[in-house]
Amino acid sequence: MHQDEDFSIENITKIEGHASLDLKVRSGKVESCEFRVTESHRFFEDMVNGRHFSQIPLIVSRICGLCSSSHLTTALEAVEDALEVEPSEQTKSLRRLSIFGEFLKSHSLHLYMLALPDYLAKESVLKFGEKEHHFIHDGLNLKKAGTDILTALGGRPHHTVNYRVGHVTKGPNSEKLVAILKGLESVREKALETVHLFDSFAAKHPFERKTNFVALKGKNYPLMEGQAIHCSDKTSVEKDGLMQHLQEVVVPYSTAKNAVFNGKDYVVGALARIALNKNQLHPEARKALKGCSTKLPNKSPFSTNLAQAIELVHCVESAIDLAKDLSPRNEPAPKIKPKACSGVGVTEAPRGLLYHSYTLDGKGFITESNMVIPTQQNIRSIELDLHDFVPTILSKPREKAALEMEKLIRAYDPCISCSVHFLKVNWT
Amino acid sequence: MPKKLKAGFYSLACCEGCEIVMFDLEENFLKALDFVEIVDARLFNGKHPGEKLDIAIVEGCVESEVDKKHLLEIRERCKYLVAFGACATIIGIPGIRNALPKEIQKKLKRKAIIPVKDKAFPISAFVKVDALLQGCPAFTHEILDVFVKLYHGIVPKLEEVPVCSECRERENPCLLFEGIPCLGPVTYAGCKALCPSERAQCIGCRGFTEDGNFEALRKKFQEMGIPKKEIYNLFTYFNPDPFTKKMEEK
Question: Strands, E, within chain B: which ranges?
């Protein structure tokens, strides 16, 4: 690449959704860097307005095909927070188990199907030769352990059908739980191997940039039922006060909003969770982390992949512990009396902090809603990273430099469909 | 071995869940690659713009001029076009926006994304569709079925019975008797009555049947004591309001 160049990557591949990158390089420095989300707006915040609270989880689940359970769970928690409905312990356990399943699905697909080809210098998994072919099986087996949980508990791997406000219409029978356990136990080793694999790649990336991390604060490596959020700048906030710290910023070149926390760029997702909550990881995951040659947390965005691999171990082991203790019974649906109210749900989706809030009228219909999605929170960091990263790779040929940039973007595991969920913008 | 089918996967405005369903084929996904060659798919980084295709599998709906242009190009390039999932086949959840007040729709005007008439459309609004993969998300067993049939040059046909018939096959108790507002009687089957089998009502993701008795079902919902606004919402999860004109002028 040249010291002065206008550079674009249209339709970045192997990420979820449509996004492009525009760079302007002058005298070896990045003058402007625009990570453009080019998907159409998707109107979700307006589409749920006027709908009954009971329908919301089923609708917002469709924001994202990869993390539908996270949207579903966050919406359920927000509506329950508003209506002061306390779901049973069994309902909560089933949801937790689903979330472990979703992390397994999402992380393993990202690591093996989208990120791995970069590191093996292959165009895609379809171009894997005999030597690499087993990675496809490994990735699909890990994914299957996750989607088998989702299917057993929620009817199918995506867009769970039976989770409702306050209850689950039908829980799994013990046969299905035994099958889940068997599946999870069969991928224990594979999860550890994934850590070794991505540890060996992580060491190859010297690029670092200081940023802040934001994640849920709580017990047992919290992925849901969020009550508080903390940031590596040492601030901590109750969930109802999150939006006083988190500002959404409209950027003219993109259909996704950006976000800042306490006025600064920040990162959410696996790396942020490990940075802030690593002492709460499952003992097996902590052991795996200790055994890595790359130390986490660090300032390299490329380490996100390793952090996801560590979380695979955490989720497999935690799901095994949880599933062992479950013996679901049929529970009646709680009687819910609608009232004018509002509530907030905050969880960790595979890609990071996820926030939903809803206001209901006296009859149970939604009058106002807001959602903040992980990818929109990371976009600013992606741009700032590229700003610093691109000058270090200018000596490489164009194609190679582009690949390095795509690798960095892919490491964030961006989910574009999610990030364009909103509408409430006034364009000038 | 005869020639492999050249296939391309495309996604317009949607959650991309259907494309992710491809991975749920698991080992069958790898087996399918014996007779299907994925030559163009952003998720796999196959950059072959312009290449002729045997099958194009398109998920998502048309919300912008960019989507529309992309869709027309795909149609030009392929022999068979398969609509993939609820957004592409019947408009699905994105269609809820079509009933939003005009002033909200108007907020969307801007240069980069030019909306098509301020509405979302299923792909059949603009191009000829050869086969449908219905559901939200699409079903793995049907994806394989479509591949196999098209490989042999057979254009697959849809189930023409409602979800109720599959509930009966599975011996599910009828949710309507329990006061749960289920759309099974007016929705196309093929899902093996997935939702009712989990004691969750059918929300119509495979599309309304041609001859569904919507009026009778509405009366049934009224008898259950469901308010009018809520009945409207129940019918319009995935489908345009069956009581007014099906789809406004394009």
Answer: 5-11, 36-41, 53-59, 78-84, 131-133
Judgement on whether residues B44 and B168 belong to the same structural domain of the protein: no
Interface test with A, best of B39, B100, B198, B228 (most A CBs within 10 A): B198
Whether A377 shows a pLDDT value over 70: the answer reads yes
* Cα–Cα separations (whole angstroms), residue A375 to A233, A370, A416, B70: 20, 15, 7, 25
Between A150-159, A168-177, B180-189, B241-250, the lowest mean confidence (pLDDT) is in: B241-250
Read off the pLDDT of each residue in B222-239 and give the average, rounded to a whole number. 93
Residue to mutate among A37, A40, A48, A428, with most B CBs inside 10 A, is: A40
pLDDT tens readout for residues A35-64: 887 666 677 888 898 999 999 999 999 998
Per-domain residue ranges for chain A? Answer: 44-419
Q: Are residues B133 and B171 in the same domain?
A: no
Q: Grade residue A340 by pLDDT with cuts at 50, 70 and 90.
A: very high
List the domain range (segments joined by +) for residue B208: 163-235
Question: How do residues B176-201 score in pLDDT, each as one tens digit?
Answer: 999 999 999 999 999 999 999 999 99
Please state the φ and ψ torsions of residue A151, each to the nearest 5 degrees: -70, -45
Query: What pTM did the predictor assign?
Result: 0.93
* CATH number where B39 lies: 3.40.50.700
Residue B224 lies in a domain: yes
Q: With cut-offs at 50, 70 and 90, classify the pLDDT of residue B221.
A: very high
pLDDT reported for residue A414: 84
2.40.110.10, 1.20.1250.20, 3.40.50.280, 1.10.645.10: CATH of A44-419: 1.10.645.10
Interface of A with B in 76-135 (CB under 8 A): 109, 113-114, 117, 123-126
Among the partner residues A47, A159, A425, nearest to B97 by beta-carbon distance: A47
Task: Kindly compute the dihedral angle of the four CA atoms of residues A123, A128, A129, A133, in this order, to the nearest 10 degrees.
Answer: 170
Distances (CA, A) of A121 to A116, B19, B44: 9, 24, 14
Q: Are residue B117 and residue B167 in the same domain, yes or no?
A: no
Question: Residue A421 in contact with residue A369, Cβ under 8 Å?
Answer: no
Does residue B92 form part of some domain? yes
Residue B192 in any domain: the answer is yes
* Domain-located, residue B158: no
